[in-house]
C-alpha cells in the first residue's frame, strides 16, 4: 500500500528506494513497471502514461530471482527479449556476448543455468535486461540472494554497465551500503505513512570504483542513511 507519494526521477539518474519491509517499496516498483495501477493519481514515464512505455518495451525489469529458462543456454536466455519482442527490438541491440563479458561471464555463453552459481545467474538476468536496450531499468532487490562478497562484485559490475549505458534506474534494496554505493539519490520510505520519509542526495564522484566504500565521505553518508532509517523505525514503533 502507498499513500500520498510523489517521486520524480530524472533521465539517466540512478535512484534507490530503501525502507523497512511493508513500507511499499515493491509496490512502487510494480506501479512504475505497469504491473499494478494506482487507485488515484498517475504514473508517467517520459511524460507519457506508463502503459505506453510498457507497450513500446521501454522498461527492463530485474526481479529478485533470476527467472532463467532452464532449457535455454545462457546466451539464449540473454537474447530472449529480442526474440519475443521482434517488432520493438532496437535496430542495433547491444552485443549479448559483450554484455556477458562486461559482467564477468566471458566463456559461459553455452552453459545451462543449472551449471551456474546464484551470482552468475543474477549476472545473466542483468545482461538480459540490458540486451533490449530499454531506457528505464527497474530492479527489485536483485542481489538479495547472494553472499556479501558476490553482492559487492555485482553492484560494481552493475555500476560499470549503467555508467556506459546512461539508463534511468529505479532500484530497491534493504542494504544501506548498497544504496549509497550505487545511487545519485536514496529515497527512504516510511512504514508508518507508506510514503516518502526523506530523499538523501549522494554527492559522490562518478565513476565510482570498488574502493569508494572505504572513503570518509561514503561512511558519513552511510551513517546519515542508517540514522534516518532508525528515526523512521522509532517513530513507527511509538505509534
Summarize the SSE layout with pairings.
Blueprint: E1 14-18, H1 25-32, E2 44-45, E3 48-49, H2 50-55, E4 59-62, H3 74-78, H4 80-84, H5 96-102, H6 118-131, E5 136-140, H7 148-165, E6 168-172, H8 176-182, E7 185-189, E8 196-201, H9 216-237
Parallel strand pairs: 1-6, 1-7, 4-5, 5-6
Antiparallel strand pairs: 2-3, 7-8
Features:
two-stranded antiparallel sheet; single chain; six-stranded mixed beta sheet; 9 helices; 8 strands; 239 residues; alpha/beta
Largest sheet data: 6 strands, mixed
- Counting copies of identical and different chains, the oligomeric state is single chain
Number of strand elements? 8
In round numbers, the mean pLDDT is 87
Strand content: 5-15%
First and last CA, distance:
18 Å
> Low-confidence parts lasting 5 or more residues at pLDDT below 50?
none
The largest sheet has its strands arranged as 4-5-6-1-7-8
Number of helices: 9
Q: Helix share of residues?
A: 25-40%
Helix-strand category: alpha/beta
Rg computed from alpha carbons, rounded to a whole number of angstroms: 18 Å
- From N to C, what is the helix and strand string? EHEEHEHHHHEHEHEEH
Shape: globular
Amino acid at each position: 500500500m502507498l499513500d500520498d507519494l510523489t517521486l520524480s526521477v530524472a533521465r539517466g539518474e540512478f535512484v534507490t528506494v530503501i525502507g523497512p519491509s511493508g513500507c511499499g517499496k515493491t509496490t512502487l516498483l510494480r506501479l512504475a513497471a505497469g504491473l499494478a495501477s494506482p487507485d488515484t493519481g498517475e504514473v508517467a514515464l517520459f511524460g507519457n502514461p506508463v502503459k505506453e512505455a510498457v507497450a513500446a518495451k521501454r522498461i527492463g525489469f530485474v526481479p529478485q530471482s533470476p527467472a532463467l529458462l532452464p532449457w535455454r543456454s545462457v546466451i539464449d536466455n540473454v537474447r530472449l527479449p529480442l526474440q519475443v519482442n521482434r517488432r520493438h527490438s532496437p535496430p542495433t541491440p547491444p552485443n549479448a556476448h559483450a554484455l556477458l563479458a562486461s559482467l564477468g561471464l566471458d566463456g559461459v555463453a553455452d552453459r545451462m543455468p543449472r551449471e551456474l552459481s546464484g551470482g552468475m545467474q543474477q549476472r545473466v538476468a542483468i545482461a538480459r535486461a540490458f540486451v533490449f536496450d530499454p531506457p528505464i531499468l527497474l530492479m527489485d532487490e536483485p542481489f538479495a540472494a547472494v553472499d556479501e562478497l558476490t553482492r559487492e562484485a555485482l553492484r560494481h559490475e552493475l555500476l560499470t554497465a549503467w555508467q556506459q549505458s546512461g539508463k534511468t534506474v529505479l532500484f530497491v534494496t534493504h542494504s544501506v551500503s548498497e544504496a549509497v554505493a550505487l545511487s545519485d539519490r536514496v529515497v527512504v520510505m516510511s512504514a508508518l505513512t507508506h510514503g516518502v520519509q526523506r530523499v538523501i542526495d549522494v554527492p559522490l564522484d562518478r565513476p565510482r570504483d570498488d574502493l569508494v566504500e572505504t572513503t570518509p565521505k561514503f561512511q558519513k553518508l552511510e551513517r546519515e542513511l542508517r540514522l534516518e532509517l532508525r528515526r523512521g523505525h522509532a517513530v513507527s514503533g511509538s505509534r
